[in-house]
Amino acid sequence: MVRKITCLVIVLVLAVLGDGNAILHDYGDALAKSILYYEGQRSGKLPATQRMAWRKDSALRDGFDKGVDLTGGYYDAGDNVKYNFPMAFTITMMAWGVIEHGGSMGAELPHALEAVRWATDYFLKSTAHPGVIYAQVGDPNTDHNCWQRPEDMDTPRTVYAVTTDKPGSEVAAETAAALAAASLAFRAFGDKAYGIVLLKRAVEVFKFADKYRASYNDSIGEGACPFYCDYSGYQDELLWGAAWIYKATNNVYYWNYVKENIVTFKAQIEGANFEFGWDSKHAGISVLVSDWVLKNTTEASTTPFLSYADAFMCSLMSESPTKIFQFTPGGLLMKGGKCDLQQVSSISFLVLGYTNYLKNSTHVIRCNDKTINQAQLLNFVKNQVDYILGSNPLNMSYMVGYGDKFPRRIHHRGSSIQSLAQHPDHIGCKDGTPYFESTGPNPNELTGAVVGGPEIDDSFADARANSSKSEPTTYIASPLVGLLAYLSAH
């Protein structure tokens, strides 16, 4: 027995020391921080339970000039605009993580549900009036021309809406997906009444999205573009929303909707089945519906979703002859010569989801003459998450506050400017410029934020001006909530 234990210790030591990039990660700590991050992105009146104390109330009159209350929700990134389209995707992914892995979150589960609810309460407000969905608050052009704390902002809080006359199917359908996913999370973990409210609204919002079809690019383009233009069309969001409502209701109408409309989904854009993120839901639809297709042999043989999901997995695996994704020298996933941690976290979540759905199935993933097993899929997931947490050539965590080495000069207004406690006087639009230009570390740690990531050679410039790499976003971090919950338990 002593000999076996000694051998095990040696193996573990070699595993850590044999590779300079091998690090034993505290996934539970990373999970807690990934959820805490959302408190730093909150808009509106902050609750007494607010833990990220340097943030204070902001945007307390959003929507009031239109006679509606649109306070609450999240700022999307390092700016002070509330974009409902990526915000809804953020919450769909976070709620999906709670649905699948909430039982592994332990003491962090209430915080995760609170983070979801901060957005769904706002979505209930933004969808409360028949015939209109409020889709964005804040003028992005003036906002991006300022470097100002959210507590100080005096840029226009312009309200953008989609209506029956000027529809926006993608933002409406993604909101429906978020409400449906959140309803499942709350119904599974103790607040069934709230979950029922969310589900009822999801059905109403999806009906609006489907009946009044058009892209919000054409309806509120001056607000959405070029920041969050929808480049892949709204058909994928309609299928995504319908699939989530089917998962939440078991109403066969929505499953038939997905199957009957797959032709528009399939023909939409070349290579679409290999995309997943706030804009494109294609691969996510295939993985989501695979959960019930795998349990129904008839559906498996008459629908293309498993073949789509398999092809997506084959496109990722380094062992696959049909891979289209590449990797940096340090092992980070990249596509089209770009590294993007939003893509990495979202895709890794899908791989984990498909792996879990395959557990009780005899289905085999075939990539031409190669087969991919569940162990390979899980290894892919772990490697990508570990890279984000610091198992990379720089030994740098791309999650703020995790580990000893992480980005200190992130592209984020509130984090980079002295807090109200340090500087109680108003900071005007251009008064924050010296903070932006400073080479010093940000005075406020946005704990749990995950930045855009490294270059294709695994290098990283820790500078605010390097916005594409140093700016954190809500939709980079949200898939990590479920991923880290799983890894912390396994």
Automatic annotation (TrEMBL):
Q: What is the lineage of its organism?
A: Eukaryota, Viridiplantae, Streptophyta, Embryophyta, Tracheophyta
**Catalysed reactions listed for this entry:** Endohydrolysis of (1->4)-beta-D-glucosidic linkages in cellulose, lichenin and cereal beta-D-glucans
Biological process, per Gene Ontology: cellulose catabolic process
Span of the secretion signal? 1-22
The record's section on Gene3D superfamilies has: 1.50.10.10
Q: Which GO terms describe its molecular function?
A: cellulase activity
What Pfam family is a match for this entry? Glyco_hydro_9
Which family is this sequence assigned to? Belongs to the glycosyl hydrolase 9 (cellulase E) family.
* InterPro entries in the cross-refs: 6-hairpin_glycosidase_sf, 6hp_glycosidase-like_sf, Glyco_hydro_9, Glyco_hydro_9_His_AS
Class of this enzyme: hydrolase
**What keywords tag this UniProt record?**
Carbohydrate metabolism, Cellulose degradation, Glycosidase, Hydrolase, Polysaccharide degradation, Signal
Looking up SUPFAM superfamilies in the UniProt record yields: Six-hairpin glycosidases
Annotated active site: 411
What protein does this entry describe? Endoglucanase
All residue ranges annotated as the Glycoside hydrolase family domain in the record: 27-484
List its EC numbers: 3.2.1.4
